[in-house]
Every structure is written in C-alpha cells, then in structure tokens.
Amino acid sequence: MKHQITFFPSLLSLSVDESETVLESALRQGFRVPKACDAGVCHLCRARLLLGRARHKHSKLEMDASAAALEPVFCCLLHPLSDLHLEIERVLAPGQLPSQEVTVTIQSIEQAAPDVKIVQLLLPAGKKIEYYGGQYLQILLDSENVAAFSIANAPRSDRTVELHIREAQDSDSYALLAKRLKEGELLRVSLPHGETTRFKWQDADKLLFIAASTGYSQFKAILEEMAALGDERPVTLYWGARTAKDLYRHDAIKSFAFLHPNLKYIPVVSDQPEWPARKGLVHQEVLKDLKSDFSGWTLVCGGSPAMVYATFDDFVAAGMKPEQMISDVFDYAPRDPA
Ligand code: FES
Question: 2-87 has which CATH code?
C-alpha cells in the first residue's frame, strides 16, 4: 500500500510503498536525501516525524508523531504506515542539484560562426561538480550582472566544459562579458542551474527538441547524456538559424545522428534563399511537419525568450497542451501575469 510522504520545509512530496523505506523509495525516484550508511548509524538522514504512523525497519516497532516528537527518526529505517510529514533539511527534488560558485579559467576561444564564439572553460581541480545535461551556468560579471549560458557538455576528464556564446551586440551583459573574453581570463561562475533535464521527461515516449541559434548547445548536452545513458527514445531535433554558417556544428550533429539512429536532425534556415533544404522560421516548420497533431509529443524549446514564447503561443493556438512544452525560459523570463 502506498502513502504520500511530504518533506518539510521543502514541501517536496512523493509516494512510498509500505514495503520500502522512505530513503530507498526517495533515492529510487531520483530525490537526493543526505545519507551515508543506510543503517541508522551516520544520522545524516535523521528527521522529525510531524504527522502520521510508521514502523522501524528491523524492530517492526510502530511509532507515531506524538511518540516520536522528542526522538529523531531515520529515513533509512522508516516504513510508512500512513501518510507522513517529515521535517528534514537538504532534500532535493529529482533533477535538482545544489549550485556552487567556483573560479574557472578561459582555456580557448573559437569563432565558430560570424557571431558565435565557442569558449572552453577549465573547471577548478579538486572540486566535485555535479551536473545534468541541459543545465546552465551563470557568469558573475559584477555585483549586479550575470550572463547565463547552457553548459554544452558534461565536464570532460580534462575538466573542461564549453559554452556557445552569441555576440549579442544589443545586450549590456554581453558588452560586459566581451571585455573579459580572453584566453587565460579568470571568471567567477555559479553552477549548475536550470531544471530542463531528463527528470522532466522521464515518461515521455517521443521527444521533440527545438533549438534556435546557440540554443543548440543545451540540446547537444542533453543528447550526449542520453547517448551515455543508453537512452534510445526517438528524438527529433530542429535547429533553426539565419544562414547555414550560423548552424555552426551542422556537420558534428549530422555525424552524431548517423551514429545514433534514434535522432532525426532537421536543420532550418530563415535567411538564405539558396539553402537547399528546409527554409523558414524553425517553429513554423515544426508546425507544418506535425500538422497540428501534438499527441504523444513532449516538446523542449531552447532559444531567446521571444522565440520560445512565439513558439509556445503558436503551438497552443494549434492545439498543443501548455504542459507539453518545457523550457528554461518559462522559469528565468516569466511573462507578466498581466
Ligand atoms: S543513512 Fe545513515 S542513518 Fe540513515
């Protein structure tokens, strides 16, 4: 029999079967709970039982919130017998990781397209950096300004990660960043951030990724992570840009799709009449292909807020359910409620 467990103060909740301990079930479902021993010894998973009834894994002793008020309980030894409220710190939801600030060094800069730089950053030695494909980092430019970029790969064994940076001439934060884009420069960054990760589409059967310009970097990381995990679900990636030159990793993603047949890659350019393949705005080309049939699709969209909201609005008007689309933009650039 399953019971609803709610953690306080985070208010995260999950369903746990009586046959499992709270810790076993939480870990299996992707939650992160402090723990070391799984045996009631280290006390890292200690909690306060605020509501409900539970039993001890070994002694079978039953406890309820009133009896347990003075004594801590341990999630690794706790089988629920009813819905529970547990007070415990440092629990993170699936896909959440604690972010940290570190100093990185710019190792190299490549001009990948007329207005795109690929910057290799060297992460500090001796720091464990955890990360999920699809997350981003923030470059802390000064006390008021940050610049956010998707991390385009899982940290490599040589401690490097890459960022794909569009030279946004109209952006104040890019103007600040541009002065710092030099090999050997030290940057303070905060990472990881963002919840556009595999935990958001665990149950999806068909994935459709829509990238505009350097939005591609997020999908590069996600696709590489899927390949590393052996996730061979069908994925369609549309990558839109103004011209073929702006598809700055076109050959690389074509090669990746050749090696991973679950990936269908469709490049789209909007501003180059002689381009021999798909021409137009990327989201409109997606709409044409779907013929307004969104059933079964989970869509992930990466690009500027203007592009993501235009895509969202046109797709909802064409019949997509709002909850079918995932994007970081919805979190970091929410629309005015008005
Ligand atoms: S994990 Fe050590 S006491 Fe629960």
Answer: 3.10.20.30
**Residue 164 predicted with pLDDT over 60:** yes
Report how far ligand 1's centroid is from the alpha carbon of 34 (Å).
8
Index of the ligand 1 atom closest to the CA of residue 76: 4
Q: What are the structure tokens assigned to 243, written together? A: 């011209």
The answer to whether 127 and 191 have CB atoms below 8 angstroms apart is: no
What is the pLDDT, as a whole number, of residue 185?
97
What's the pLDDT tens digit per position in 165-174?
Answer: 999 888 888 9
The shares of helix, strand and coil residues in the chain, as percent rounded to the nearest 5, are 25, 35, 45
Determine if ligand 1 sits within 6 Å of the CB of residue 72: no
Q: Are strands 53-56 and 78-80 parallel, antiparallel or unpaired?
A: antiparallel
Residue 12 alpha carbon to ligand 1 centre in Å: 20
Least confident of 222-226, 235-239, 328-332: 328-332
Q: Which residue ranges make up each domain of the chain?
A: 2-87, 100-193, 198-332
In CATH terms, is domain 198-332 a member of 3.30.110.70?
no
Pocket test for ligand 1, best of 43, 57, 71, 90 (most atoms within 8 A of CB): 43
Q: What is the pLDDT of residues 65-84, one digit of tens each?
A: 876 566 899 999 999 999 99
pLDDT in tens, 99-155: 899 999 999 999 999 999 999 999 999 888 889 999 999 999 998 899 999 999 999
For ligand 1, atom 3, the nearest C-alpha belongs to 40
> Which candidate, 183, 184, 163, places its Cα nearest to that of 174?
163
Q: How far is the CA of 65 from the centre of ligand 1 (A)?
A: 20
Task: Say which CATH class 100-193 falls into.
Answer: mainly beta
Give 64 Cα–ligand 1 centroid separation in angstroms.
Answer: 20
Tokens of 327: 């994007």
The residue type found at 262 is: N
